[in-house]
Design goal:
There is one protein chain. Strands 1-2-4-3 form a four-stranded mixed beta sheet, covered by helices on one side. Strands 5-6-10-7 form a four-stranded mixed beta sheet, with helices on one face. Strands 8-9 form a two-stranded antiparallel ribbon. The two termini are 22 Å apart. The relative contact order is 0.21. The chain contains four helices and ten strands, in the order βββαβαβββββαβα. Helix 1 packs parallel to helix 4 and helix 2 runs parallel beside helix 3. Helices cover 34% and strands 31% of the residues. The radius of gyration is 16 Å and the shape is globular. It has one domain: Ribosomal Protein S5, domain 2 (2-Layer Sandwich). The protein is an alpha+beta fold.
Amino acid sequence: MNTRVGRVSRETKETRLEVVVDLDGSGTTDVATGVPFFDHMLDQLGRHGRLDLTVKAQGDTEIDAHHTVEDAGIALGQALAEAWGDRTGVERFGDATVPIDESLTRVAIDLSGRPYLVWDCDVPIKLIGTNFETSLVRHFFEAVVANARITLHVQNLAGDNTHHIFESVFKSVAVALRRAVAVTGTGTPSTKGVLQ
């Protein structure tokens, strides 16, 4: 099997990032963004997606976490797209429903080549920790979807604790992604013959 690894370096006036993702990893993560709650969520994504994931970021977190989270989403989406290439042999579709205590989230992914996010996760805007605003979770996934060119549906079905809700979101995305990128065939999983 070809190596399915994506590497992206991104530098702006606001952030500097290095992202490496190995779709055939074991869930080893090395994450340091300067945003502790976000690091915890990215760790869940790698571990439960069984992706080897490295995200190193330096950003203007003294202002807030917005630029770091957004640019991490852009770079991760680009790295994923690089890692799966033309998507030959992948399952293409993946879904998962994951509970974390009182929280439950359902996710479905299509490696369609068509970026589209459906977000049904109504959480009040507030801070988690010192610098992570809850609205950044949706913004992160918007950036991933646009740059990975996938369709992603996220539906939170239950939950009271904001931390648990977002942990169930990230774990559901991780498991659905693992299923979607699994190599189960040899051709392109599309009647069009191409996923773009």
